[in-house]
Amino acid sequence: MKIAVIPSGFKESLSSAEVGTAIQKGLHEADESLNIQVIPMVDGGEGFAQTITQIKNGQLYHLNAEDPLGQKRKTFYGMFYENKQKVAVIEMAAIAGLRHVPSNQRNPLHTSTYGVGEAIIHALDHGAERILIGCGDSGTSDGGVGMAQAIGARFKDYKGKTIFIHGGGEIDRIHDMDLSHIDPRVLNTPIDVAVNWSNILCGPKGVAKVFGPQKGASPKEVEHLSDNLDHLARLIKRSTGESVAYQQGSGASGGLGAGLIAFANATLHPRFELIQQYLHIEPVIAQADLVITAEGCLDFQTPNGKIPAEVARIAQQYDTPVIALAGTIGQDAEFNYQSGINAFHSIIKQPSSLDDSIEYASKWLKECARNIYHSIQIGMKMNQTKSQTHTTKQRHFVL
């Protein structure tokens, strides 16, 4: 039997590669003869750069770049060759992710994407001919203004004085933009950005109102941030002609999606569609007898572009059954049946603390995969017995 294991990671616990390895070990404990291919998947957030770089046999580059609070921090991006082109893969979360902001300092009014721009310049300095950026798990909501300053954009106040903006809370200080100093290499290098396609910059469902509270903003601060991003959208429209306010994906990573469009001439893509271009999972699914996928929490949000549902939609085209494993099964998880997931299981067998769930996730994944395959073996045996019985009855009838 050929089994394709195509999981996402368990946030703050296991990378997608570690999830895949645990599932593979469990399956092989049940049957050593299984032909298993593991393809770790990423959605643009944590693990994006490392996973793709490793799969593409690339190399990690290290640099010191500003974290969301403006402190220099050692970080990285990847570089690999695709179609004889040198591609840099930058993970927003590794530079300006929420995990880099201590819980007592979380406030999107005061965090910046400046380090993302530094990574773009560093990649170009090292020969990047195309840049792939993953937007996810951000700790910022500055509309990409920080990133823009790092690549050369200048912002001016109402007196015409150049000012430095740190965080979404200061965007209302901007009266005008001078984009003539942006590094021309940025504008002339293809930049593809993997985003959550449903995230938009402005309005009642804009990024400030949806994600601002998760990043530490109070209700009053959320309104201030939302007004500032509206202001930024108007400035961008006036300066560049780009209408980013309600463009799909523009709200990704606190509006970094909008900033990359406006200031870096980037192209946004639904994250799974873009990642699939580099990881080529469809041929593997087409040849598999079974697909096993996984994510930390499977719930009503999973069908909205998350990896298990996207994997299942491809598998549906080939009538390949899909089983999803999850740390927890959340609200309205049954919606996933409509995406092509045939069955889902929680790896947690008893009430457990978050710390225990994180510590034992790998062990529980392995055990769950092993037990699921034992169940599959029972089904196969029952089907075989039924077929043999049916054949015997047919023979008796002929006699």
UniProtKB/TrEMBL annotation:
<dbReference type="InterPro" id="IPR018197">
    <property type="entry name" value="Glycerate_kinase_RE-like"/>
</dbReference>
<dbReference type="InterPro" id="IPR036129">
    <property type="entry name" value="Glycerate_kinase_sf"/>
</dbReference>
<keyword id="KW-0418">Kinase</keyword>
<comment type="similarity">
    <text>Belongs to the glycerate kinase type-1 family.</text>
</comment>
<dbReference type="InterPro" id="IPR018193">
    <property type="entry name" value="Glyc_kinase_flavodox-like_fold"/>
</dbReference>
<keyword id="KW-0808">Transferase</keyword>
<protein>
    <recommendedName>
        <fullName>Glycerate kinase</fullName>
    </recommendedName>
</protein>
<dbReference type="InterPro" id="IPR004381">
    <property type="entry name" value="Glycerate_kinase"/>
</dbReference>
<dbReference type="Pfam" id="PF02595">
    <property type="entry name" value="Gly_kinase"/>
</dbReference>
